[in-house]
Specification:
Layout lengths: L2 H33 L9 H37 L1
Helix pairs in contact: 1-2
């Protein structure tokens, strides 16, 4: 693997990690909106909670992709040192 490919993988890992953090923060803010009394009507809360769950799931997916790229880079570095 050449340096350009390694840099691309590092950039992708950083991007996916950033996406994960942003979605986690967004889902936390939306969840706070369901806790605050009077912020949402009772019939809107289930939809917001579904969206929060969706955001958390996508956040975990992005975090997993980030770890996958980091693992590939680490395996590549380990194979180069052997």
């Amino acid at each position: 693997m050449n340096e350009k490919e390694k840099k691309d993988l590092r950039d992708k890992a950083n991007d996916y990690q950033t996406y994960s953090v942003v979605l986690l923060a967004l889902s936390a803010l939306l969840y706070l909106g369901t806790i605050i009394p009077g912020a949402l009507a009772a019939e809107q809360k289930p939809f917001v909670l579904i969206i929060v769950g969706l955001f958390l799931g996508v956040s975990l997916y992005f975090l997993n992709r980030s770890f996958t790229y980091v693992r590939v880079l680490k395996d590549e570095d380990d194979s180069m040192t052997l």
